[in-house]
Prior knowledge:
globular
Amino acid sequence: MLPSPVDYAIPGFVLLIIGEMLIARAHAPDRYEPRDTLTSLGLGLGSTVAGVITGGMAYAIALWAWQFRLWDLGWAWYVFVAAFVLDDLAYYAFHRAAHRVRWFWASHVIHHSSQHYNLSTALRQTWTGFFSASFIFRLPLALLGFHPAMLLFVGGLNLVYQFWIHTEAIDRMPRWFEAVMNTPSHHRVHHATNPRYLDSNYAGVFIIWDRLFGTFVAERRDDPVRYGIVKQLGSFNLLWAASHEWLGIARDLWAAPGLRAKLGYLLMPPGWSHDGSRESSDTIKQRWAQAQDQKGDAPWKKPISSLSEGDRAGAQSPAG
């Protein structure tokens, strides 16, 4: 069994969060809100406990799938490289589904529930990933012949990489880096609630997937990022943050008129409703684009980089 990159990275995570907090205290104190940060830390701890409980089951399922592999790819260094790249593609597929399918969103929404954006936000990870079966997106790699232990290792590296991009302290990286890699600027867009930015930049490590599949949107100075979800939590309660969308699904399933509507509340995008009374990200973006056209402000105007401005704690814009 390979070591867990995340376990080794935890001391570094702690030091970086402390360092960012000190910098924020001196230059931008509103970037950290004590209760919000404590909630993020609590959600991260809960996710770790959930991983200990369910990780073995997910690994066992991957080992079962590996029995039916097409090839035995072995453990050469270049196999690790291929596994890392393909695992990131699998993460892109999962991440896109997590924003477009409400069943997966119910687990993923916990990561978007903060109205602040700092390194502690990266710790907001799901408690219910095994229940939502998010591991299925990596099973094809086991079937190709990558050993599940290797996939677990490169998946950990992917998660470690994503930690540092949850910050407003870094504006833009060099142009060549921004073209290929996921960066704080790209990921701020992903966490944005602004209509322009909804459902974009799903990358884990390589932003090339978003550029290739048409989901890339650049950060703009004239549209500062606002963070949160479509209906802000309004609470720092850990249990509510971890379960509110599952409870919402349960309520909708109970009230839905017929099987088709019930399936819609599970499989359609967040915000979908059988009677059209709610707004999804698609309808929000369409309404926004129409408003921009009427004002003569085309949404495809050339983007430029930016940092977010001010405290987003009161933002109520729709989320992606």
